[in-house]
Design a protein that fits this description.
Helix content: 25-40%
Number of strands: 8
Number of helices: 10
Largest sheet: 8 strands, parallel
Distance between the termini: 16 Å
CATH superfamily: Aldolase class I
Strand order of the largest sheet: 2-1-8-7-6-5-4-3
CATH architecture: Alpha-Beta Barrel
CATH class: Alpha Beta
Number of domains: 1
Bound molecules: SN-glycerol-3-phosphate
Oligomer: single chain
Radius of gyration: 16 Å
């Protein structure tokens, strides 16, 4: 499998769920790797920071950090720098996830420091307006996720398909090189297909896989239309 993030992509954010503690992250990452190898679809994972290096060195799929802080290597206690993420063998990072928001100017600094560390950048946005601002920093991806739908049982592709279409168009008007992902409540292959039909290059999801009784079965359903 490739460590490159090609399109379409499914990014599984492990967040801080108890299911990811201990060896849980490796179990989940191996399930993602297995389905990715069986289907050829790129599935990327975002383990907790404490597991980043271990996971990145034990799977053949792209591993992303859930966050980076706007610091270069040096005297920065407790922060996660883009350069240390790269040296963990991760290939990219989420930035400004709605559960770990940073101010507008710091988003740009995180994107620039991440690019300098040769990391793929996925800047998260709550709505179309913040997606436009995010696209202005020229990340690789902008992921639009309505916070009120995150962790719920109704997919953004059902509850608010217009936000996906509008984000795709608005981001394209800012910079056609920036790809759009969508997330929040995404749980099935039908959700993924709808997202792609609406112009997204993939999805960002968490609970549908991380909290599943059979993550591999959910992953296989997510890619069934791809
Ligand atoms: O990072 C993706 C996440 O915010 C979506 O969460 O549980 O709705 O798939 P979930």
């Amino acid at each position: 499998m490739t460590k490159k993030i090609t399109r379409p992509v499914i990014i599984v954010n492990f967040k801080a769920y108890s299911e990811t503690e201990g060896d849980g992250s490796l179990f989940l990452a191996k399930a993602c790797e297995s389905v990715s190898e069986e289907t050829g679809i790129v599935i990327s994972v975002c383990p907790p920071a404490v597991d980043l290096s271990r996971i990145a060195k034990n799977v053949s799929i792209p591993v992303l950090s859930q966050n980076v802080d706007p610091y270069a290597a040096g005297s920065a206690t407790g922060w996660i720098t883009p350069s240390m993420v790269r040296r963990c063998c991760a290939v990219g990072t989420l930035i400004n996830h709605s559960e770990h928001k940073i101010s507008g100017s710091l988003i740009g600094e995180c994107v620039e420091l991440s690019k300098a560390a040769e990391l793929v950048t996925v800047v998260c946005a709550d709505n179309v307006q913040s997606a436009v601002l995010a696209a202005g920093f020229r990340p690789d991806f902008v992921a639009v996720e309505p916070p009120e739908l995150i962790g719920g049982n109704v997919s953004v592709t059902t509850a608010n398909p217009v936000i996906i279409e509008d984000t795709v168009e608005a981001v394209r008007n800012v910079n056609g090189a920036v790809s759009v992902l969508c997330g929040a409540g995404v749980k099935t292959g039908d959700d993924v297909k709808t997202a792609l039909d609406l112009g997204a290059s993939g999805v960002l999801l968490a609970s549908g896989v991380v909290k599943a009784k059979d993550p591999k079965a959910v992953l296989s359903d997510l890619v069934k239309h791809l």
